[in-house]
Each structure stands twice: as structure tokens, then as C-alpha cells.
Amino acid sequence: MMRFILWAFFCMTCVSSVYGGTPVEVPDTMAERIRACTICHGAEDKAGRDAYYPRIAGKPQGYLINQLRNFRDGRRYYQPMAILLENMSDEYLYEIAQYFSSLQLPYPLPEQIYMQPEEIELAEQLIRMGNPGRNIPACSACHGDDLMGIEPAIPGLLGLSRAYITAQLGGWRNGGIMRGQVPDCMSEIAKQLTDDEVNAVAKWLANQFVSGEPRPISTLLPELVHRCSQNITEAEGKE
User: Fold this and answer.
1) Which end of the chain is more exposed for a tag (fewer CB within 10 A), N or C?
2) What confidence tens digit (pLDDT) does each residue in 79-90 have?
3) Which residues contact 74 (CB under 8 A, 6 or more apart)?
């Protein structure tokens, strides 16, 4: 990321020199430093509905630092992210995570995808009650009753596109390039979902209006705290 900014500054300086103008001074702010991030995530952290780039504004800081470190350290692989983050310190990644977690930007409107009644019933069953017989917890049990996430490390599920949700669940199920090398609780859960369940959940989530706030860790059931303990511990900086 820093290399991108330095490269951009070099280009602007060269252009100014050729035309005899005054070099452009770029302010040393976090908003300027993260411009490389907004190439994919959008200038206002909003991407097209068909894009596979998630909203990161307002996500819990702990969740964001976990993802940044996973990309940097090779536990989760996506080449553009790996290149941007290589050699960045934990301290700088915390600054980036803090910046994006503090952003309060408007959410997109729901996608308005048509669903059959049986699809709605299936999605709501998994989202609100899960499937205890298959050891699948309800989405709301981990991501909060409003599905807006749990501080410090569990993200919200609303405001994301159907394409992105489907791709992420598919990655966890199939071990795609977007998934980490170290298994986590979502990979265990996603591998038990059928194609119909993945499609129903993705449609339902993309159809919802966004409201509410992330819940505190105290609202997470003890067994789920244990199940997600690795992510929570890393987010709190207690490796």
C-alpha cells in the first residue's frame, strides 16, 4: 500500500517537472494512505452489486485486524491483498483497521431478489435457529440478533451482496483461494451446508435492510465464545 502511494507521488512529481508546475503535496493522513484499498473497495467503500469485494467500513476493528494479518502472514490467500500488506507491521495494520472500523457510511439498499416460500423458510430456519442435529448454530447466535456482528471479531452479515456471500461460503466449503490455510469455525459450518442452503441464506441476507449495531461479546453464548476463541483472542492481541 505504501509503495503504491510513493509510486503515485513519484508520477505526480514527474508530470509537474515536465510541465514546469509545482509538485503536488499529498497530505500525510490515513485517508490518503488507504487510497490503494479503495481501488477495490470503492472510494466510499461501496462496490458494485456484482463485485466480490466486501464492505469494510464499520466492521469490528478486531475482525479487520484479523483479516489483515491473515492476508499478510499467508493464513488467508488473495494475491492483491498479500502484495499490498507484505512487510507491514502489526501497529500499522491496527491503524488501518481502526480507521475503517470508525467509518460510518450509508449502506446500500437491499437487492430485492425473488425467493420461493420454501427458500425463505429454509433461510430463516438456519439464520434464526440453525440445525442442532448437524451441529450448525444459528447465524444470529454468532453474528447477533440484528446480524450486525459481535465485538471485537465477528462481522455483520447485512449490507453484503448475494454474489459476495455465496462466493465466501463456497470458498469455505471448497477450500478456494480466498480461504485461509488454517481451519476456523466458519469453514466447519459451511462444509455442512448444501447448495440449496447456501443459495437461500445468501438471497435472504442480501434482501434485508440494514439496521442495528454490533453486539458486545457478553451476548455470545459460552459455547460459541469457545468455538470462536481463536479469532477473538487474536483480535484482542493475545496470541
Assistant:
1) C
2) 889 998 999 999
3) 82, 181
